[in-house]
């Protein structure tokens, strides 16, 4: 049975969010197979690396801005502005005549994707309770991964005889393998705008509420707090509730609690950002070198390398269902601990210190462990960070945007790191991929140590609020009685 908050936001909102995130993330990968020959046709092949990386720059810039705006203003306004940017970027990509126009188009498409994901994750925070949020965030992460994986397949529908050009206002319009992804992004934006129009309710479109009296049960229930067990005993000590009201204890006690706000565990949020950054860094790095690695070390062709990434997508879907089953009974911080340990072990298995060569069995087990941990880490981190903030905080959208910016920043650094290490090492004793995995293993080892040292600070605001309310309420009620 959905909670009161989910029913208030409508039963179909999750499908709306997942579909829009899937379409936005498909806009990144749908152009990857053809962007290199497209630039070569335009005589701008040296801009190839920049055209791929500038997408993440746009995502990095847009995420915190749109996340904050979505917290303050109606979601439909921010989403429509994001979709307008996507339409302009898609049209510019489809009609580009120079490499610089391709760069600008990719930047706009990055702005579109980053703003879409930030807005939808903010909607998830707004419309879920603590118990529901991990599964919902896992659904968004799964939609993101599937969008990246299936984008090239969607772009494959344009492998036919070119159509055009047709001149419109002096601009040649044509539909072929190179321009098809741009037109596809325009279609994605119009489909998403339709979902925004029919899928958002009034509760979802309004901004997050201002921090108000945190002791008001009705307001807390509407913002993810259920009725606190034993709340009367917590607030009024041994006094009877009616006697407490009559003697003015309720008024004095609530005034005291409101005036002494519980501090936010900023260190917990920083650790969440670190885990998310290292997780995305590792994913983008091994994603970059997997194809040449399996080709050089195992003799695989491109077809089998693609099948490996399809298998990775299936693993992510399985992890989503595991999170759905376990999140209700296991705290997020324990789930995230499992994800960090799995990542460390996965990269450790890919090292060649055991037999001085890349063993296929160990590589496949490590690859599966890393992909499973990648989905688990991304989903749980986004959920856990939002639970550390108070439900009534207006910084949820900004936080979600900053976390997405961490991912975008890692996606810029990861491929550069992987390519630099790959080119700087030789194959005399170890393979080139080995040294890439050494760096990733050390990053996760340090992250695991930092995570363990900060484990106490990763409790949800609700749990800390209950503990703080007990201590503050009993102290104040004892003071009033005496």
| Low-pLDDT residue intervals, each spanning 5 or more residues | 1-11, 207-241
CATH topology of the largest domain: Growth Hormone, Chain: A
Can you summarize the main beta sheet?
Answer: 2 strands, antiparallel
Share of helical residues = over 70%
Range of strand content: under 5%
List keywords for this structure.
75% helix; 2 domains; two-stranded antiparallel sheet; single chain; Growth Hormone, Chain: A; 20 helices; 482 residues; 2 strands; mainly alpha
Write a brief caption for the model.
The protein contains 20 helices and 2 strands. It is mostly helical and 482 residues long.
Polypeptide structure, described:
The chain crosses the membrane at residues 15-35, 47-66, 78-96, 138-160, 180-200, 264-282, 302-322, 334-354, 398-422, 434-458. It is found in: Endomembrane system. GO terms for molecular function: transmembrane transporter activity. The protein is mostly helical. Helices cover 75% and strands 2% of the residues. It is built from 20 helices and two strands. The chain has helices at 4-8, 13-29, 32-41, 48-72, 75-94, 99-126, 130-155, 180-199, 202-205, 217-222, 231-236, 241-246, 249-259, 266-298, 302-326, 332-349, 360-388, 396-424, 432-453, 461-481, and strands spanning 163-168, 171-175. The longest helix has 33 residues, at 266-298. The protein starts with a helix and ends with a helix. The model is unreliable at 1-11 and 207-241 (pLDDT under 50).
